[in-house]
Automatic annotation (TrEMBL):
Name the UniProt record assigns to this protein: CubicO group peptidase (Beta-lactamase class C family)
Residue ranges occupied by any Beta-lactamase-related domain in the UniProt entry: 18-102
SUPFAM superfamilies: beta-lactamase/transpeptidase-like (SSF56601)
Alphabetized Pfam families for the sequence: Beta-lactamase (PF00144)
């Protein structure tokens, strides 16, 4: 699934909030990506992967170890999608709604109620 970019300033407050949180907790870096109406409307990267002198800058290919936090994000997204009728049941196969995932190399793709290991 490839999305077109249509960058706007509509979500600049999101970037500012993430930047403020970054500064407050003294994080090394962050990435912000907002998808709205099937388009990437906000994309922003800042910071580095480590404090080492030649550390790689955060960019669109960066991966973050977010541990159990992803469960909260995933749960919220699934609840939101159920509430608004984007998915009918948490027991539906993920591929029913995202058939393009079948073309991506993932460990496995399950149902919403019991997703497999997720790639972040």
């Amino acid at each position: 699934m490839f999305l077109e970019k249509n960058i706007s300033t509509q979500f600049n407050q999101v970037i500012e909030h993430v930047r403020n949180t970054h500064d407050t907790v003294k994080a090394l870096g962050y990435a912000v990506l907002v998808i709205h109406n099937d388009q990437i409307v906000t994309e922003h990267y800042a910071g580095y992967h480590s404090q080492l002198q030649h550390a790689k800058a955060i960019n669109e290919d960066s991966q973050f170890h977010i541990a159990s936090v992803r469960k909260s994000y995933t749960g919220f997204c699934i609840a939101w999608a159920l509430h608004y009728g984007y998915i009918q049941s948490i027991d539906d196969p993920v591929l029913h709604y995202l058939p393009d995932l079948d073309k991506v190399k993932l460990p496995s793709v399950g149902v919403f109620s019991h997703p497999p290991l997720m790639v972040s």
